[in-house]
Amino acid sequence: MSQKKLFLALIALSTVSLLLHHGGHLMWAMEVFHLGCPALHSHTGPGLKPKHTNVAFLKTHKTASTTMQNMFFRFAERNNLTVALPVQACTHQFCYPRSFTSHFVHPHTLPPNIITSHMRFNKAELQRLMPNDTIYVTILREPGSMFESLFTYYSQHCLTFKRVPNSSLEAFLEKPSQYYRPHETYSMYAHNTLTFDLGGDKDRPATDVAYAQAFASEVERTFSLVMIAEYFDESLVLLRHLLSWDLNDILYVKLNMRTLSSKQSLTPDLLAKIRAWNSLDAHLYDHFNTSLWLKLSELGPACVAREVRLLQQAQKKLMRSCFGERMPRLRTAAEIKNEELRPWQPSRTVDIVGYDLPENLSHGFLSKAQELCLKLIMPEVQYTRVLLRSQSVRYRQSIQLRPLQQLHRNQKPMKTALPRHPPVDNNQPSPAASSPDSKFTAGT
Ligand SMILES: *[C@@H]1O[C@H](CO)[C@@H](O)[C@H](O)[C@H]1NC(C)=O
Ligand SMILES: *[C@@H]1O[C@H](CO)[C@@H](O)[C@H](O)[C@H]1NC(C)=O
Ligand SMILES: *[C@@H]1O[C@H](CO)[C@@H](O)[C@H](O)[C@H]1NC(C)=O
Ligand SMILES: *[C@@H]1O[C@H](CO)[C@@H](O)[C@H](O)[C@H]1NC(C)=O
Ligand SMILES: *[C@@H]1O[C@H](CO)[C@@H](O)[C@H](O)[C@H]1NC(C)=O
């Protein structure tokens, strides 16, 4: 064997052993290289963008947004960020359905990096409250399943739905205007809820196509990303890229779901009637579902598929490390013994399922890792309370540490744990320059 051949054989051998040793990593590094996917770990290394920490997530109703809120809460806790939370008088929402104002924000949660609790969107007020490089994100859901969900969930809260004989969705859709009163409390759950949450006029007639189009454009100018609940993992991949976050930052457990027995499947006829009744929401959905798929194709379907796969693998791993082989059990609220984990029940006819913890987690001292596991499955109301408590403690400590004369100059943005992202131009006028968007944020 010539020396040259021996050399080549050695090279081949060491390549194989390298692949065997670092197989996973090398393979995916090569895959990434091939596909031209942006790197997964984006917060380290020169030239890579720092994680973006200033985010306003508009939490819409019945759209998997509770799962998103939980993710933002955990990110904030890990990175010592401040989350704007409602004053107690507003409960765990920003006095929804009133239009958002900064008076609804608890003073111990100022100045904020992140805001995610339920509100009726009011762009001008949010711009006054949030840092000027805040990225706006929200989520929409397919109008048919969304309306079916609202109809069941709020059957006892929304007077419109209460009037319907036998709580029959078919009966309601036969003649919606017979039951609907636009100015009643909670009427927004019965008509174009997404449009209302986004600050729009839910009662514009379906014939006003110009309004639907103008409103969608307005939402597009404000929100850098509109996620779609039906493509949740794909939307998360886009979010990760938008915020330069890690894969670990977007792990989640689905929260606030109904049991299968309280769901109803829709016929094409019912679906068409729901879309006709909620035409503004249907327009929004179609518009932003198209945008989402455009963004996904820009990123590259292979990259997206790969990241979705990695996300799902990482999720399984996290669940195993938290709960061992026995995954947390999906249970109805009545069955959940740990009060911290019991989800809110809208009525006796709907079962919202939550998780109960394995015995070894459900009592006693919690380690840091166990605490993360607990937070992953903690319902919205409880987590909001926990977060307010810890932020209040931090606020009081910061007051005690600060010399008295500085108390009144506390208007500068609080230092965040991560380097600030350069200001992002998402076509938002600076807070000072903006005038209230009266057309779209009309108060209630
Ligand atoms: C957050 O704050 C705690 C206590 O002040 C500190 O120990 C921890 O290192 C901080 N974490 C980050 C990510 O800055
Ligand atoms: C954002 O605010 C900072 C000060 O807080 C200011 O220096 C910067 O110019 C502002 N950026 C924009 C785009 O308004
Ligand atoms: C309500 O249900 C009862 C019993 O199922 C039925 O007899 C009645 O016709 C229903 N009413 C309407 C308005 O659908
Ligand atoms: C969303 O858009 C994609 C791509 O155009 C389409 O295939 C899909 O059917 C749409 N989804 C829904 C629920 O309308
Ligand atoms: C809880 O018990 C399961 C199964 O016995 C085990 O796999 C898991 O590691 C335990 N979790 C903790 C946090 O101790």
From TrEMBL:
Disordered as annotated region, ranges: 415-444
Q: Does the keyword Nucleus apply?
A: no
Q: Which InterPro entries match?
A: Gal-3-0_sulfotransfrase (IPR009729), P-loop_NTPase (IPR027417)
Alphabetically sorted, this entry's keywords are: Glycoprotein, Golgi apparatus, Membrane, Signal, Signal-anchor, Transferase, Transmembrane, Transmembrane helix
GO terms classed as biological process: glycolipid biosynthetic process
- Signal peptide interval: 1-29
Q: How does it sit in the membrane?
A: Single-pass type II membrane protein
Q: Name one Pfam family in it.
A: Gal-3-0_sulfotr
Provide the primary localization: Golgi
Q: Where in the cell is it found?
A: Golgi apparatus membrane
GO terms for molecular function, please?
Answer: galactosylceramide sulfotransferase activity
Comp. bias regions, Polar residues: 425-444
Q: What is the top-level taxon of the source organism? A: Eukaryota
Gene Ontology CC annotations of this record: Golgi membrane
The keyword Transit peptide belongs to this UniProt entry's keyword annotation: no
- Please give the family membership noted in the entry: Belongs to the galactose-3-O-sulfotransferase family.
Annotated PANTHER family: GALACTOSE-3-O-SULFOTRANSFERASE, GALACTOSE-3-O-SULFOTRANSFERASE 3
Q: What is this protein called?
A: Galactose-3-O-sulfotransferase 3
Q: Which organism is it from?
A: Monopterus albus
